[in-house]
């Protein structure tokens, strides 16, 4: 991460675009989540060789199992936070462009400061992080539940603060993006399906 190439929240920009265009359709929020799947597919293609190596190595390679568990551990905090706070975030925070603007600006300055004054790295391999470090990075990812806070920015920043080397922090963030975005999309899809079913019951009754 360098100061001229900061990870910023694409979701935040999409929500501001919705506000600027005056789009009030609730389906826009699902579109914001779904469009991220394109980025996830790009990540899968980019890291396909490494992902495949980890996948086939799970039964026999302790390093592959350790890495897979690390990613899952990092995913759990945002999974739980998202499940409990989903309605509040979707109904209130996603509808507040002022919050998005503030978090985009403040987050950008914090990332630039961290890029310049990050602690000296001690960890250089994204596949060999301790489970404690993985869990702490997962907690940083929870910050991205606030619209305007970049998911990659929060996890990379967390990694740098935990003394990961920049490439390792970025790589772990990208791997963590895969279950996170797939989970977000799936949860939103299930929520919309149940909402439609409830609406149908109301109409029938």
Structure write-up:
The structure is a single chain. With 205 residues, the protein is mainly alpha-helical. Helix content is 75%, strand content 0%. The chain contains nine helices and no strands. It starts with 9 loop residues before the first helix and ends with a helix.
| Helix-strand sequence | HHHHHHHHH
What is the approximate shape? globular
Count of individual beta strands: 0
Roughly what is the average pLDDT, rounded to an integer? Answer: 81
Count of runs of 4 or more consecutive helical residues: 9
Low-confidence stretches: 199-205
Radius of gyration, whole Å: 18 Å
How much β-strand is present in the residues? Answer: under 5%
Helices and strands: which structural class?
Answer: mainly alpha
Could you estimate the helical fraction of the residues in percent? over 70%
Describe the sheet with the most strands: none
Short description:
With 205 residues, the protein is mainly alpha-helical. It is built from 9 helices and no strands.
């Amino acid at each position: 991460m360098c100061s001229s190439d900061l990870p910023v929240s694409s979701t935040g920009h999409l929500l501001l675009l919705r506000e600027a265009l005056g789009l009030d359709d609730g389906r826009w929020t699902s579109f914001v989540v779904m469009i991220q799947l394109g980025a996830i597919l790009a990540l899968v293609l980019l890291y396909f060789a490494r992902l495949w190596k980890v996948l086939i190595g799970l039964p026999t390679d302790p390093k592959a199992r350790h890495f897979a568990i690390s990613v899952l551990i990092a995913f759990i905090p945002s999974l739980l936070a998202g499940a409990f706070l989903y309605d509040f975030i979707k109904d209130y925070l996603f509808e507040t462009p002022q919050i998005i603007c503030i978090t985009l600006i403040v987050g950008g300055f914090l990332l630039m400061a961290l890029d310049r004054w990050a602690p000296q790295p001690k960890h250089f391999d994204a596949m060999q992080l301790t489970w404690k470090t993985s869990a702490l990075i997962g907690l940083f990812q929870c910050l991205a539940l606030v619209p305007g806070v970049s998911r990659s920015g929060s996890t990379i920043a967390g990694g740098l603060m935990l003394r990961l080397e920049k490439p390792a922090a970025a790589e772990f963030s990208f791997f963590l993006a895969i279950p996170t975005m797939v989970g977000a999309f799936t949860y939103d899809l299930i929520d919309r399906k149940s909402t439609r079913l409830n609406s149908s019951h109301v109409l029938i009754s």
